[in-house]
Write a structure and sequence with these properties.
Layout: E1 5-9, H1 13-24, E2 28-32, H2 36-55, H3 61-69, E3 71-74, E4 85-88, H4 94-107, E5 113-116, H5 123-127, E6 136-141, E7 150-155, H6 161-173, E8 177-182, H7 189-205, H8 211-222, H9 228-235, H10 237-251, H11 260-267, E9 280-281, E10 289-290
The structure holds nicotinamide-adenine-dinucleotide (NAD).
Length: 295
């Protein structure tokens, strides 16, 4: 099976990045959004991304034009019937995702491979709703897609080994490094990354050290690009709280439970960079200031 046309459903942060990458690596991309307005926004996002690369001299104008020739959009999932692979990147909501896959399953040719970019939902729960469990995988890209070299390829107990192979080769063809994970909560990266950030939050809550010293400790002591609390603010505290609950529900281990300080911050809608405040005050995004919780 040769992948020529890739469908991308949902053109937010991840979907637009994935569609752009797919175009840059020679595939045709057929993208989908909920309505015309969102579709145009998404298409513009992809165009702007490619134009920026052009301005920086990373791609030639004629290459950019050729990529845009291979880009098309639709608001109807039924138009995606001919795609060889469809990557779903809509909201992290199992009902929304499942509805999309049921509609795609009815519309698409039987060879079409389905993939979800979910960070935390079970691939099996989506696959079982379709007539093609064996052609269903997870393709977990990292944010920002253009920069992060890793993609987790997730196989369920029903995934056909040939489809897994196709997915691995597809990821390689995008210039990314594939790692294979089983369909367990957290896959590989978030299984380790989430409790690492939760530990740092617990340390703040228990007064082990200041926010600055915890982050500088990991940054300078372990050569990480940033500390766990700043990273949490970047990712979004609501996203981490959600991931924490999912991991805790699956493994019932204390280390995955959301720390009280995280729950309080999320309750107050202090969600990190996107809301202007989390473990840091982001009033000046170039100069985040650690918040004094009075602990
Ligand atoms: N943001 C990240 O750092 C990140 C990293 C890895 C994986 N993910 C996963 O990727 C997925 C998308 O995340 P995101 O951050 O891009 O979200 P986002 O909110 O930026 O984008 C989601 C997009 O999906 C669209 N959408 C929603 N319902 C739709 C439908 N029925 N049909 C078509 N389009 C629909 C929305 O209009 C929106 O543009 C989620 O599953 C998330 O867990 C996110």
């Amino acid at each position: 099976m040769t992948i020529k046309q890739v469908g991308v459903v949902g053109l937010g942060v991840m979907g637009a990045g994935i569609a752009q990458l797919v175009l840059q690596t020679g595939y045709a991309a057929l993208v989908n959004e909920m309505d015309k307005n969102l579709l145009n926004k998404g298409l513009n996002r992809i165009k702007t991304g490619l134009e920026k690369l052009c301005e920086k001299g990373k791609i030639k104008t004629e290459d950019k034009d050729a990529m845009l020739q291979r880009l098309s959009g639709t608001v109807n999932l039924s138009d995606m019937a001919s795609c060889d692979l469809i990557i779903e990147a809509v909201f992290e909501d199992i009902n929304v995702k499942t509805e999309i896959f049921i509609a795609l399953d009815k519309a698409c040719k039987k060879e079409t491979v389905f993939a979800s970019n979910t960070s935390s939902l079970p691939i099996s729960k989506m696959a079982v709703q379709t007539s093609r469990r064996e052609k269903f995988i997870g393709l977990h890209f990292f944010n920002p897609v253009a920069v992060m070299p890793l993609v987790e390829v997730i196989k369920t107990i029903a995934t056909d080994p040939q489809i897994l192979e196709i997915a691995i080769n597809f990821v390689k063809s995008l210039g990314k490094y594939p790692i294979v994970a089983k369909d367990n909560a957290g896959f590989i990266v978030n299984l380790f990354l989430t409790p690492y950030m939760l530990d740092a939050m617990r340390a703040v809550g228990e007064g082990v050290a200041s926010i600055n010293d915890i982050d500088m400790g990991m940054k300078l002591g372990c050569n990480h690009p940033m500390g766990p609390l700043m990273l949490a603010d970047f990712i979004g505290l609501d996203v981490i709280n959600n991931a924490s609950n999912i991991l805790f529900n699956e493994y019932k281990e204390k280390r995955y439970a959301p720390p009280p300080l995280l729950v309080k911050l999320v309750t107050m809608r202090y969600l990190g960079l996107k809301s202007g405040r989390g473990f840091y005050d982001w009033s000046d995004p170039k100069n985040p200031v650690p918040v004094d919780f009075g602990i």
